[in-house]
Amino acid sequence: MRQALLAARAAAARGEVPVGAVLVRDGQLIASGGNAPIAGNDPTAHAEIEVLRQAARALGNYRLEGCTLYVTLEPCAMCAGAMLNARLARVVFGARDPKTGAAGSVLDLFAQPALNHQTALAGGVLADACGALLQAFFKARRGGKASPLRQDAVRAPEGAFAALADREGALPSLPPAPASRFVSDLPTLAGLRLHYLDAGAARAPRTWLCLHDFALWSHQWRHWVPVFLAAGDRVIAPDLIGFGRSDKPKKEAAHHWLWHRRVLLELAQRLDLQGVIVAGQGWGGMLGLLLPMAAPARYQGCVMLDAGLPHADDALPDFSDAYATRVRQIARAAAPVGMDCATHAALQAPFPDAGHQAALRARQRLFPQAGDGDPQGAALLRQAHAFWRAQRRGRSLWLASGGNAAAARAFKATAQAPELLAASASGWLAESQEGAGALLPDAALAARALRFFT
Questions:
Q1: 168 annotated active-site
Q2: Which residue out of 48, 50, 74, 252 is catalytically annotated?
Q3: pTM for this predicted structure
């Protein structure tokens, strides 16, 4: 049923009603699928029908004897009939459907003795999780109490994110539980709604400002948050505009790296963050390196993962291949080889369709470009390098993944640059660590960062 829930979340990310199903025989997963009537303009494309079709093709037989089908919602009459025709041995469902359920709620097609095949039935498995996913989806559709949405922006359905609440996808629930918060009245936001996680005591001695990489969101830090909370620290993890649960402007021109920096500075000021350690990967790390010079007393260090600070006349090393691969992974209907379904669902959740993906298409505007004729950006980069050359307070940990050629070049261009090496006596540490550039950095890296600053 947990696998079926993952399929339901993937359906929600595509804008479909979040129902998922899997089919198993002899302990082996044969097929997995979610609702797809909207995408296919097909009223019969329920999750159960999709799975029955897949399984029949995989097994080369329209009779699916000896198979068990798991589905997150009680089957309707159409699906129940198809299951009986397929000669399934057993059907297991999660939440009941009081309006159209044909497994006992409205009628029970599985309890008709006149039928020539009897399929065993079980219901209520992970019913709360299955039902919560549906409730969150329809609440988001009705609008809930969400702040107004600008006409030039879109907002991913909350059901796509509520579904990430199992052991594979959620921020682990350590007290105090991470809290989702929204802000839309920062001057630069101009009414756009920004989502951020705020966990831990407001006046903790350390605050970790965790900035996600391009095409990712605050979910990236789910394994880090419990490590920092257990140490008594505070964590702020925003979804930058265009990503995660934050609003997504429809036009690519709305995105620019200088604009995102201003939003982050205003958020830090609004929350009056103190004792800040900036943790950033890739794009988020680059933005993070541009923050401390605006209010040095607010910051005490940084942890950079495969991140670099370009010079005014240079672009960052070419990450286009890595980022293009990530965008292709988002577009895939099924998890690519080497990626589990939970990770793929989390990657897709913020981007259910092309209308939500302007930030992905605006990639070049999110990084400084050599010779782009931007005097403001060039001046800021020169100021940042001057700041880091003179900086003697705080400590910084630089991590670069050994298997990433572009990351290695960024590492060489920043952590090993002369102006940074000159600061080594005051606590800088450059370190190459395999896995630092992974899609979802793990708790071991968080523990490494915590030890460095303890």
A1: no
A2: 48
A3: 0.65
